[in-house]
Amino acid sequence: MAEAAGTGGPRYLVFKLGPDDFALDLGVVRELIRPPRLTRVPGAPAALAGLANLRGLALPVLDLRRVMRPDAEPAAEPTRVVVAEAGEPVGLMIDRVLAFSGSAGANQGDDQPGSRRIAASVGSGRARLIDLAALVAEAFPERKARPAAPFAGLRTTRDGDGGAAERIALVSFNAAGRSYALPLERVAEVLALPSDIVPVPRAGEAAIGVVARRGGVLPLLALPTLLGLVAPRPAPDARIVVARIGGSEVGLVVDALGPILRLARDAVDPVPAALGRGRATAVEAICRVDGDGTLVSVLSTDRLLEGTTVTATPPRSADATQSDGAAGVRTEQFVVFDVAGESYGVPVASVREVLRVPATMTRLPRSPDIVAGAIDVRGTVLAIVDQRRRFGLPPGEDGPRRRIVVLEAAGNVAGLLVDGVSRMLRLEETAIRPTPGLSDEAGNAFARVATLDDGGLLPIVNAQALLAGTERSVRAATKTLAHRAPGLDAPA
User: Fold this and answer.
1) Which helix (H) or strand (E) holds 145?
2) Which of 40, 93, 96, 405 is spaced 20 to 30 A from 345 at the CA atom?
3) Model-level pTM?
4) pLDDT in tens, 323-340
């Protein structure tokens, strides 16, 4: 890389962006990195390519071509990202670095607002100097504090008790064709079944093997076998429910993750004594989910391993926080859903339940495209918002993985149509940070981001802001429809 031998004068990083040369004051440049893996943030400014994990920091990365050269042909791939200081670190995607160079002078004024030309000793000899502060201020306008708009357009009727009654939270799943559940506080997380399971000889009939997890190993047990049921070997799309048993953790392999249930206490009954025949059973309660008689068995983690040779081992120090504060570190639990290949997390406390997509949904008259329709959930009409369209993406295809995530925040309820719900995670609060300043709506709906064990970033949804933002989008889209076709209603 060429470097001019300047003596105390201004110095610049000179780089290519399409056919033109640009420069950045070397005083704001912190480092150069190769293009990292990016996590997209829906609703963010068009200039934001995504967030990158820079040694635990969620770094906003700007695509400079979209800002400085929106009319130019796109490059094949950017070769570097400049990490610069603009009040907080920001990444700038560039095509190619030319040099660290001094300048032979500068001409004030240019055809590009917020920039000026400098004479450089490399490239074309003239480079456009970028005013980083002005660039970032324009790309990331400061968020304005404002109260969330009422969610009137999609508001649904709450349960008859007004939501005041205490509810029991359960994580449900399917095993050997039957429905079971565990109390939410007994589930550390839900994971996909990995391909690299290590078998353990003579470990017992229910033992599948062990997998690596956060510097330790997690024993995997086939739940149907533990319950005395006959079931085929787990399919590739099976899930691992990481259950807390005492101070230890065990992975229970199940066929599929079911809804997150929040039930009134009078919907949960103890197992009739006659069924136990004097012996303890692994099922400690039966809950009634729907009015049509659907029953789910609630498992007892204290008795699940009784009568087996399996002994759960305590988690390693990296997992010590799974005991929820036993080591003085707080944790938070999230449901992870997928939209167009990206993953997003939402706090479990904001998730009322997760539903399978019904075969048909009722189309609401005069509703915009982002409203997929409405469904009946135990006597309550629930509006369903297509998150692909909400995020400005083309609609997805129907498939067995699609789910409806029912969010509840500040008394408002709506269903989010997503491509899938992949897992549940319990993260330490030290792994969660505020999202760098984005646009007003994106900064509210995705105010936090978590760093995962594999180095990836997980944007965290603020349910209340997301519902309020969706309400604004619905109102705007409905107003547009009314102007286009006044007095016309769409068929139901």
Assistant:
1) none
2) 93
3) 0.68
4) 444 456 788 999 999 998
Q: Where in 108-166 does DSSP place strands (E)?
A: 115-120, 126-130
Q: Determine the straight-line distance between the first and last CA of the chain, rounded to whole angstroms.
A: 65
Beta bridge partners of 69: none
Q: What are phi and psi of 211, to 5 degrees?
A: -130, 155
Q: In 3-state terms, what secondary structure has residue 129?
A: strand
Q: What letter would DSSP give residue 209?
A: E
Token pair, residue 454, equals 């594999």
**Residue 98: its pLDDT value, please?**
83
Residue 83 banded pLDDT, cuts 50, 70, 90: very high
- Residue 162 backbone class (left: φ over 0; alpha: ψ -120 to 50; beta: rest): left
- Give the pLDDT confidence score for residue 338 in this predicted structure: 92
Cα–Cα distance between 214 and 200 in angstroms, integer? Answer: 19
pLDDT at residue 367 above 80? no
Q: Is residue 253 within 8 Å of residue 208, measured between CB atoms? A: yes
Query: Does 368 score more than 50 pLDDT?
Result: yes
Burial (Cβ within 10 Å: 0-12, 13-18, ≥19) of residue 107: exposed
Closest CA to 11 of 116, 130, 125, 100: 100
